Amino acid sequence: LNERMQRFTTTIFAEMSALAAEYGAINLGQGFPDGDGPREVLEAASRSILAGENQYPPARGIPALREAIAEHRSRFFGLRYDPDSEILVTVGATEALAATQLALLEPGDEVIAFEPFYDSYDAGATLAGATLVPVRLHAPEFRFDADELAAAVTPRTRMILCNSPHNPTGRVFRREELEHIAELARAHDLVVLTDEVYEHLTFDGRQHLPIASLPGMRERTVSVGSGGKTFATTGWKVGWITAPANLIAAIATVKQHLTFVSPAPMQRGIAAGLALPADRIAAIRDGLQAQRDLLLDALTRAGLQPFVPEGGYFVVADIASLGFTDSRAFCEELPRQIGVAAIPMSPFYRDAAAAPTLVRFAFSKQPQVLREAGERLRQLA
Ligand code: PMP
Ligand code: GLN
């Protein structure tokens, strides 16, 4: 392994899922649902396989999916993208993020990202020979300080990487926060790469606001989506990018040498999902909000201190209230001790000591599974 990738060996998600499997623990670590999503989605992909759509599809994605992405982005968020020139289908959001960094960054460039950050952001920047510069989201609200953000910009800054709703904190960025980011991006001519894989999964009436919809931002924003989270198909790895034609052309150049194309039948399935009426997607969101509430209740009863997430799949909780001091040691013991797996927050920080007692739990699980996890967690109290 080359030197620059030495820091990125086994991801924390793989590590904790392996421990969960070893001890037969309830896996509240890696973020994936334990049930299937809408029938329409599953049937469309199955039909596609049986209809013989089993060879390489078009490079930028099947037209039906690119049209569905354009229609969906316009219907839900009022953003218009041309399916032929401004949309690229990828192998999950992961490829979308890495391909964008590989296409747009030069070695030595800097990428600002909000910390804690999803692990692949730093890996993607590093693959491109660039450096990730963290700007802290401060607990308990996980908001950034506008002065700290402004101070992070240097002559080498090329990109700001945003993620809202945010993994791992569950924060949904407010309009005024997005405006701060947009103002800096315009002033310093930066690209904004925005990871919006949880765009539909917002709670308590909150709405996701795409940063591309702010004035002067569409032309400099690369927006990333995924079918995995909304439609409970994380194993399908269908993601997409919407961006201006010049940026899509650059990213498509890289994508063709990473994976060439994305699997055709799964694209059919996700196209069916994106076409679902708003009330079906709202029902998915409401179900997840109820699961969030179950897990919040379970964590509180166990004596932990959870931060209430506004969106996404995860709750962050502080284990200091129970006298624990090391989240990694806690998560390494938990599957064996009580049969529950979770993720320490340290890998989401540049400095592993930054949040020594924060742990992330996924609530994308069936209610009875969350209840059982709650029973087990009570052994901690
Ligand atoms: N971004 C975020 C914030 C995520 O949480 C995830 C997956 N959990 C991804 C990207 C990766 O998405 P995909 O599985 O579509 O590659
Ligand atoms: N994104 C998921 C999470 O945050 C996991 C994806 C992965 O395992 N790479 O848990």
TrEMBL record:
<dbReference type="InterPro" id="IPR015422">
    <property type="entry name" value="PyrdxlP-dep_Trfase_small"/>
</dbReference>
<dbReference type="Pfam" id="PF00155">
    <property type="entry name" value="Aminotran_1_2"/>
</dbReference>
<keyword id="KW-0808">Transferase</keyword>
<feature type="domain" description="Aminotransferase class I/classII large">
    <location>
        <begin position="26"/>
        <end position="377"/>
    </location>
</feature>
<keyword id="KW-0032">Aminotransferase</keyword>
<dbReference type="InterPro" id="IPR051326">
    <property type="entry name" value="Kynurenine-oxoglutarate_AT"/>
</dbReference>
<dbReference type="InterPro" id="IPR015424">
    <property type="entry name" value="PyrdxlP-dep_Trfase"/>
</dbReference>
<keyword id="KW-0663">Pyridoxal phosphate</keyword>
<dbReference type="GO" id="GO:0008483">
    <property type="term" value="F:transaminase activity"/>
</dbReference>
<dbReference type="InterPro" id="IPR004839">
    <property type="entry name" value="Aminotransferase_I/II_large"/>
</dbReference>
<dbReference type="InterPro" id="IPR015421">
    <property type="entry name" value="PyrdxlP-dep_Trfase_major"/>
</dbReference>
<protein>
    <submittedName>
        <fullName>Pyridoxal phosphate-dependent aminotransferase</fullName>
        <ecNumber>2.6.1.-</ecNumber>
    </submittedName>
</protein>
